[in-house]
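Handout for the seminar on molecular recognition.
Each group receives one record of this type.
Step one: identify the two inputs.
Step two: read the structure output and locate the region that could contact 2-acetamido-2-deoxy-beta-D-glucopyranose.
Step three: write two sentences on what you found, then compare them with the reference statements printed after the record.
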Amino acid sequence: MQKWYQYCLVALSALTVAHASAGSTSTSDDFAAACYSEPLPLLPVSPDNRTIPWGIPSIVTGNTTCCSSLDEVRAGIDAVDAQLLSLLSQRAAFVREATRFKATHDVVDVPSRDQQVNDGAVADAPAVNLPQTIARAVFSAIINASVPFELCIVCLSSLLCFYRC
Ligand SMILES: *[C@@H]1O[C@H](CO)[C@@H](O)[C@H](O)[C@H]1NC(C)=O
Ligand SMILES: *[C@@H]1O[C@H](CO)[C@@H](O)[C@H](O)[C@H]1NC(C)=O
Ligand SMILES: *[C@@H]1O[C@H](CO)[C@@H](O)[C@H](O)[C@H]1NC(C)=O
C-alpha cells in the first residue's frame, strides 16, 4: 500500500516534469519528454490494453510522418542499425590506431578518458534528442568492448604480452 502510494507520487511528479519540460521546448508538446532525461521516472506498470496503433506518429521528416505499421518501424530501425555498424567500424579503426601511440600494455586503458567520453555523450544527448539512458548504456558498452579490443591489438604486436585476448 505504502509502495503503491509512493509510485503514484513519483508518477504524478514525473507527469508534471514532462509537462513542464515539454512546455519549454518550442518544437512540440511531447508527453514522453520525461523519458529523455535521467533519472527515468519510476512509474507503475500500465494496466491498459490499448487499441493499436495509439497516439500519433512521432517521427516527422519534412512533410512525411512515420510510422503507420510495425513493419515500417522495423525497416527504419534496420536502416539505422546498418549505419551504426558502419560508424562503429570507423570508431574501431580509430581505437586500433590509438594503440600506435601507447608504449606499453599498461597504458592502453585510461579510465579518466573513458569517463570523459561517457559523461560527454550523456551531456550531449539532449541536444540531439537522444534519451540519456540510451547514451549512457551504449557508450559504456562501446568503451567496455573497445578496451579488450585495444589490448588484443597490443598483445598481438608483442610477444612479451601475457594478457589473454
Ligand atoms: C487485449 O484485448 C484484446 C482485444 O479485446 C484481446 O484479444 C487480448 O486478449 C487482450 N490482451 C490482454 C493481455 O488482456
Ligand atoms: C512533400 O515532399 C515531397 C518529396 O520531397 C515533394 O515531392 C512534395 O511536393 C511535398 N509535398 C508538399 C505538400 O509539400
Ligand atoms: C562497463 O564497465 C564498467 C566498469 O566495469 C561497469 O560499471 C559498467 O556497468 C559496464 N557497462 C556495461 C554497459 O556493461
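Reference statements: The chain has two domains: 2-49, 70-156. The helical segments are 2-24, 70-98, 111-124, 132-156.
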